[in-house]
Amino acid sequence: MSLAGLDNLYREVILDHSKNPHHKHTLDHATDKITLKNPSCGDVINLEIELNDGKVTDIGFTGEGCTISQSSASMMTDAVLGKSVKDSLEMAHIFSDMVIGKKHSQTDLAKLGDAAILSSVMKFPARIKCATLCWWALRKSLGEDEND
Amino acid sequence: MDKSFQKIRNDFPILNQRINNEPLVYLDNAATSQKPNQVINELVRYYQNDNANTRRSVHTLGERATEEFEIARKKVQVFLNAKDSREIIFTKGTTDSLNLIASTYGEENIQAGDEIVISYMEHHSNLIPWQQLALRKNAVLKYIGLTKDGQLDMEDARRKITDRTKLVSITHVSNVLGVTNDVKKLAIIAHSHNAVIIADGAQAVANIPVDLQDLNVDFYAFSGHKMMGPMGIGVLYGKYDLLKSMSPNQYGGEMIDSVKKYHSTWADVPFKFEAGTQNVAGVIGLSKAIDYLNDIGMKNISKYENELVKYILPKLLKIEGLTVYGPQDTKNHNAVISFNLNGIHPHDVATALDMDGVAVRAGHHCAQPLMNYLGVTATVRASFYIYNNQFDADQLIKAIYDTKEFFNV
């Protein structure tokens, strides 16, 4: 049996976030709402965000997906809540780089909080999109498109 | 189980490898089948010896390629018991075939207010072409419902198909539920209302005997790659008179009778539907795949797969927290089994099974309306073929138990 290899992907903290996701709810005063889908698998994320004075003052998500997509969204909301738009976008870039194996300093990775643990997903190429879906939603919501 | 099927595995070198340090158990055959050496070698033989463009070159290679191409057409005709080899059109695959009908026959015959009838178990390729046609024409798209155990509701079919129905298009075998639909009876119902009927044979031709004259459908579509042939080759069958009445789907080389400056006339059926250079190697590979299937016999294949289902389905149903979608018995169940494990998302299940070397599909299987109908967003799907065996089935069961243990459900 080689399911032991799964430990690399499904760390305890990932399973915890997936079972008890943080900020999984809608917002009363969202300034932006966005829905992103992964058409190849059917995963959906509805991201709601409240911006005040260039800061993420509230964030929440709903939707459906696998352990990786749900825990990633949960960890992302933890990471960016209270941060400036600029810092949030920087984190999104660090995350995108990290999951495809590009090197970043420990200081950079530390900015991601729990979300840094998803670097393990790079060993499972078929699952990278699960981890990045919420971060793409965030980037779009904060005004970036895929070419930025 | 028939021991002679064990040696079939030797024809498929791809199966002889380890994935994540475990023997590969390939159970994604409904997505695409693996190819035997006989088919792979045939492609090499063709390219090394006979490659030329068909129906335009006078030289010897051109003659050979054309002859092999037309022998293949005849072989498809005999394999499916069509009346006439001119009723066999080569396409890129099932999707291409179904779009061809929608954009020619559909475009020319469907009018505002007409009904198009499909079912809830259609693959997107037998759904979107009709949905879009209905939108273009202001026609009415209707869905035949399913019975509780996931079979096509024939009573509902009788209600939905009416005198306003012009076209019925139904899958022969479901790519999710594994059921075979009674296409023959549906054809009788459709014809009694003067509607044409199309069957999507993508999941059928590889696994069960198909007799087109007996089914009496007007069109039939399938792909080569799910029946051990190469990717990128498929077939559209159509009754000769219908094909003759239809306009070409594409314009270009070798589909013409004559071309003048301001008007053109078309070649006869089937050539008017085969514009441009054809996928000759694909056709010749498909022809070899048919030889391979014929050597085993479609009845034997269907019987063997049914024995596998009888072996695996009860074992799956015994697993706590596992839900099988579609019939819970083996009476009308092809070797396509969709299921979910309570508390684990299908993608996580598929990644876990892959760690045990077991390749399955997870997702909506290009059947989102069916997923909605079943009340799920996605399922795991294990689909078997004739090179799979009890060992593969046992590995799947073991991997599912491993997965449950890992995720603690």
Question: Could you give a short description of this structure?
Answer:
The complex is a heterodimer of chains A (148) and B (409). Chain A is α+β, with helices and mostly antiparallel strands and 148 residues long. In chain A, 39% of the residues lie in helices and 18% in strands.
Helices and strands, with pairings:
The complex is a heterodimer of chains A (148) and B (409).
Chain A: H1 12-19, E1 32-38, E2 43-52, E3 55-64, H2 67-80, H3 85-99, H4 106-111, H5 128-141
Antiparallel strand pairs in A: 1-2, 2-3
Helix pairs in contact in A: 1-2, 2-5, 3-5
Chain B: E1 18-19, E2 22-23, E3 25-26, H1 37-49, H2 60-79, E4 88-91, H3 94-109, E5 115-119, H4 128-137, E6 140-144, H5 154-160, E7 165-171, H6 183-192, E8 196-200, H7 212-215, E9 219-223, E10 234-238, H8 240-245, E11 256-259, E12 264-266, H9 280-296, H10 298-317, E13 322-325, E14 336-341, H11 346-355, E15 358-359, E16 361-363, H12 368-374, E17 379-383, H13 390-407
Parallel strand pairs in B: 3-15, 5-6, 5-7, 7-8, 8-9
Antiparallel strand pairs in B: 1-2, 4-10, 9-10, 11-12, 13-14, 14-17, 16-17
Helix pairs in contact in B: 1-9, 2-9, 3-4, 10-13
Q: What structural keywords apply?
A:
heterodimer; A: 148 residues; alpha+beta; Sufe protein. Chain: A; three-stranded antiparallel sheet; 5 helices; 3 strands; 39% helix; B: 409 residues; alpha/beta; Aspartate Aminotransferase, domain 1; Aspartate Aminotransferase, domain 2; 2 domains; seven-stranded mixed sheet; four-stranded antiparallel sheet; 13 helices; globular
